[in-house]
What we know:
By secondary structure, this protein is an alpha+beta fold. It has a domain at 3-109 and 186-253: Alpha-Beta Plaits (2-Layer Sandwich), CATH 3.30.70.20. Helix content is 26%, strand content 17%.
Amino acid sequence: xxxxxxxxxxxxxxxxxxxxxxxxxxxxxxxxxxxxxxxxxxxxxxxxxxxxxxxxxxxxxxxxxxxxxxxxxxxxxxxxxxxxxxxxxxxxxxxxxxxxxxxxxxxxxxxxxxxxxxxxxxxxxxxxxxxxxxxxxxxxxxxxxxxxxxxxxxxxxxxxxxxxxxxxxxxxxxxxxxxxxxxxxxxxxxxxxxxxxxxxxxxxxxxxxxxxxxxxxxxxxxxxxxxxxxxxxxxxxxxxxxxxxxxxxxxxxxxxxxxxxx
Length: 262
């Protein structure tokens, strides 16, 4: 497959994904699955129901540890080298077989970080994405201590310089980062709102990362579009440290005897 053909194929897949989202918004969740029903049930009481409920899937069978996802995320959000909103860990099975685990914010439905923030800087938007308002954050790092996924990072120094036209940081696109505050994965809501893929998904040449919508019950890695609930069920997807009751919105597909128990 030529590069031009591959780019065309990816563009077609994204259009199909967005078309599926549009159809779901007009006609309700596809298939009436348990996943979609749960998402609808969690719509803010008394508020307008969000059109999307974002989720994420990592297919660990495909990840080769290249870290293109991490590099793209850092480039997109003008992060310093110590700010790894998606981190790729090299792991090993009991038999010594190596594998890789990309780990980002789990955007938990029952997020510990949100509960402990003393000033309300951490919040969840209507689409289920956990964000940080750095204009409010006091840098106490209580949220970092509460997060069981080590998915938050303190800005110890001034961030890399961003282009002159990007100087009005907001929770949905916190660029530039603010020294003395906490930063984290925002699931690229600035992209998904425009019908684009998150930077990490776009950059993954192994097609291991999927952005999904629980309400539409679809997900895509930019090349293929799948029915989310069926994809998770048929591949025995699990959630990391689900026993903690955090209800993460990130699912993992194993396949090499891995145990996500660290």
